[in-house]
Design brief:
The protein is an alpha/beta fold and 452 residues long. It has 17 helices and ten strands. The chain has two domains: 5-158, no CATH class; 167-260 and 339-451, P-loop containing nucleotide triphosphate hydrolases (Rossmann fold). Mean pLDDT is 83; it is low at 9-13, 15-23 and 168-174.
């Protein structure tokens, strides 16, 4: 069941070089040397070439194939583990060895297919002929192009991994917008996370002020950072930012400010077995300060039911409500605390046009009482007349959420040159998402407008 020192050495060498003893490891080590040079030419640390699994991801970044690199890296890590398990189980035979063998073969196929995509990206990045692919795909020959491209001066990549980030930093403003005593002020420098061996910036350089009484549409394609932005604004996920609501800091005064913000997620968080009235009473106990008397709570529940047309169904079970009534109930639960800022994530999802308009009318009335209402919706054009302003988020070339526009609906139509809001989303979406891929152009244009 055990294995010899030579076999252990062979396994460790396989982990680092990806080859088979003896010549495969020599080819693998030569490839590592070449990869070191490739990484350095693309602006990354060469020592990543020494780390199994991680080096595949970093090479994919050099090739402009970061998503594929994630899968390749995980598959390579699984292949290393499976290969090690095979050494342990090789003398057992039977079903255990068979399972590991199937797993290893499957992972080898995945690694091979995704390496082809990465190598294809390298060929494009270095502007060489497709004939190089024949050398790249075979383990015993891929060290040749790696060494040549990595260390010969005449071979240079057309772009570096960090080029787009540096360009973004140059374009980004270093200032901030003026803080309003009344209204919402957002000065967000960065919202980032650690993801797959590197710092990943989700949002960057977003500055805006929203006056009281405004109902604002938040637009952006999938992954543009809409939910991340609203989570940063309401303090649920703190960013490197200063978020001020009516002169108070959302982060440093969060315990107090949680009563000043209401957030309605896309999912309905209500218990079907409760009545409308008791659902709202429970919400009042949770969302109103503990020192609020019981009579005041009941009075507030009555007011909110009247505002959202729920008085007639106050004793009805939640499970018996229509889709529109459930949406209104979800919103009423958040409105109990009478927040100054109201954020809703797709409140009209699953509603027909008539019900969606009725819901937006209620939100418009809420904004008209002096509150700020921010709405995310994927069907904005059917209710656009209820909104004052629009925020457009877009992913730039570095796939970071950026502010492509903030202003009135009329200004947005002039800025983007189209009438419908859904057309704006198509303009800033990437080509693979069915868009025109003009995010960078509009981000830069908006910066020019801001600084004019």
């Amino acid at each position: 069941m055990g294995f010899t020192s030579r076999e252990l050495l062979e396994y460790l060498a396989n982990c680092f070089s990806g080859g088979t003893w003896p010549w495969g490891n020599v080819a693998g080590l030569l490839f590592i040397i070449g990869e070191w040079g490739l990484l350095q030419k693309s602006g990354l640390k060469g020592w990543w070439a020494l780390i199994p699994s991680a080096r595949e991801y970093q090479l994919a970044r050099c090739a402009g194939r970061e998503p594929e690199g994630r899968i390749l890296s995980m598959a390579e890590f699984g292949r290393i583990l499976t290969n090690g398990a095979m050494y342990i189980a090789r003398n057992q035979g039977g079903i255990v060895a068979s399972v590991f063998l199937v797993a290893e073969i499957t992972l080898e196929i995945v690694v091979f297919l995704y390496r082809i995509q990465v190598f294809s990206g390298l060929i494009e990045g270095y502007g060489t002929g497709r004939r190089w692919m024949w050398l790249w795909v075979l383990h015993i020959t891929r060290w040749i192009p790696a060494l040549i491209w990595g260390w010969k001066k005449k071979y240079l990549p057309e772009w570096q991994v960090e080029d787009l980030r540096r360009e973004m930093l140059v374009r980004a403003s270093s200032g901030s917008t003026t803080v309003l005593d009344q209204g919402l002020t957002v000065n967000l420098k960065e919202r980032s996370t650690r993801d797959f061996f590197q710092k990943k910036i989700l949002l960057w350089d977003i500055h805006m002020v929203i006056p009281q009484g405004h109902m604002v549409l938040l637009l952006g394609g999938s992954g543009a950072g809409k939910t991340t932005l609203v989570n940063a604004i309401n303090g649920y996920e703190k960013a490197n930012a200063e978020i001020m609501l009516n002169g108070s800091n959302m982060y440093t005064q969060y315990k107090h400010m949680q009563y000043e913000t209401g957030f309605v997620p896309q999912q309905e968080l209500v218990r079907n077995k409760d009545t409308v009235y008791y659902t709202l009473m429970d919400a009042a106990k949770l969302r109103l300060p503990k020192d609020v008397p019981g009579d005041a709570r009941r009075k507030r529940v009555e007011e909110v039911m009247e505002i959202f047309g729920l008085t007639a169904v106050r004793n009805r079970l939640v499970q018996k409500l229509s889709g529109g009534q459930k949406k209104r109930l979800s919103i009423a639960m958040e409105l109990i605390s009478n927040p100054s800022l109201f954020i809703l994530d797709e409140p009209d999802s699953g509603l027909d046009g008539v019900m969606a308009r009725e819901l937006m009318q209620q939100l418009r009335k809420t904004a008209d009482t002096g509150k700020i209402v921010i709405v995310i919706t994927h069907t904005p054009d059917r209710v656009i007349e209820f909104f004052d302003d629009v925020i457009v988020l877009a992913k730039d070339s570095a796939r970071t959420g950026r502010l492509a526009f903030y202003g009135s609906i009329r200004e947005a139509r002039e800025f983007f040159g189209c009438e419908k809001m859904e057309e704006i989303v198509k303009l800033v979406n990437r080509p693979e998402e069915g868009g025109a891929g003009m995010a960078d152009a509009f981000i830069a244009k908006y910066k020019e407008v801001q600084h004019a």
